[in-house]
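Standup notes, protein team

Yesterday: finished cleaning the Actinomortierella ambigua set.
Today: NAD(P)-binding protein structure.
Blockers: none.

Input for NAD(P)-binding protein:
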Amino acid sequence: MSSTQLTFKRILVNKAIQSDGKPSLSHFRTITVTEPVPELKDNEVFLKNLSFGHDVYIIYTFDEGETEARVRGYAISRVLESKNPNLPKGSLIFAPSFWEEYTHLHEEEFVRQAFALDQHKGYAQYKDRIPLASYNGILGMSGFTAWGSIETLASQAKPGQVVYVPSAAGTLGQLVGQLFKRKGVKVIGSAGTQAKIDYLTQELGFDFVFNYKEHSDKKAILQEALTKLGATGLDFYYDLMADETVDIALELLNARGRVISVGYLSNKLLDQEPYAIKQYIQILVKELTVAGYFVWEHYDLLPRFFEEFVPLVAEGQIKYKESVIDNAELEQVAESYVEFIQGKHTGKLSVNLASAK
C-alpha cells in the first residue's frame, strides 16, 4: 500500500431522496477523509477532479435508498497516475466520477466510459473557443444524449416532419429541438415561462411553443399547433417525462411515427407513481415505434460525437445557455445541485472547484 496520504473532501448520501421527493441539502453531507494514494492495477487511474456537471439523472442513483455512499456524477478530471494506455498520466478526461476532490477510478464499467478529451483533435483545435466547463455541459451528457438519441433513433427524419419536445427549454430539450431543426423537422415545444418561450422561438427557431402552465388541455393546444404548421399529425415525440403526455402523443402520431423515450422525470421530480400507457392500441393500429435510448449503452459513439458536435458548438451553429460556478468548495457541488433541480440556474450548470487550480 502507498505510504503517501491525501486529505480531501467527499460528499456522501445522507438519506434516500425518494423518501421525500425532490433533493434538498439534507440528503447530502460532506466529510473530510485521509486515505493513501492507491496502488493501481491494470487499466486503473487516479484522478484529481476539476469540474462537475449537474444532470437530473443523478437522483436516479438513489433508487435503492442507499445511504453513506458516495454520490456519482460526471466530471472533468486530470489523470494523476495511470495504468491505462487510453488514459495517460497528465491527460484531461471526461468520466463518471464521484463528488469528491480525488477519485480512484477502477470499476471496469466506469473506466470503459472515460474519454481523454485532449486526445481528440477537436479539443486542441477549438480549445480557445470552448470553455472547459462546456465539456460538462453541452459537450457532456446532455449533448451526448441529445445527439446520440437522434442519430440512433431519428436518423430517418425528413424535412417537413413534426416533433413535439416537452420541457423544451431544459438542458436537453433545447439541444434536441435544434438538432431536429437541422434536419428540416418542424419543432413544437412547451415551456413554463414567456421568457423561455421567447428564447425558443426567437433565438432557437422553434416553430411553435406553448406555456404548459396555461394550457390544461394539452391535446387541444397540440392540435392547434399542428393546424398552424399545416401538419396532419406528429411524426416524433421526444419523451422526457413518461407521464400522461405519451398517451396524447400516441393519439396524435401519424402512421409509423415514433416515440423516443430518454427519461422519466415525472416519476422522480414530481414524486409520482410510474405512468401506465392507456393508448396501447395506437401502437398496434398505426404501427408506431416506441424506442428507449439509454445513453450509457452507447459509449462507442462518444468519439464520433466529439468529432461531429464540437465544431457545431465552436462555430455557433448550435446555441446554448449554461451557468458556471467558479472557485467553488466541494460543498457547493451539493448546494448547486439542489438549486439546479429547483430551476434557479439558466441552462446546464457546471461547478469548477477552487482546489483544481
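Follow-up from PR in the comments: DSSP finds eleven helices and 15 strands in the chain.
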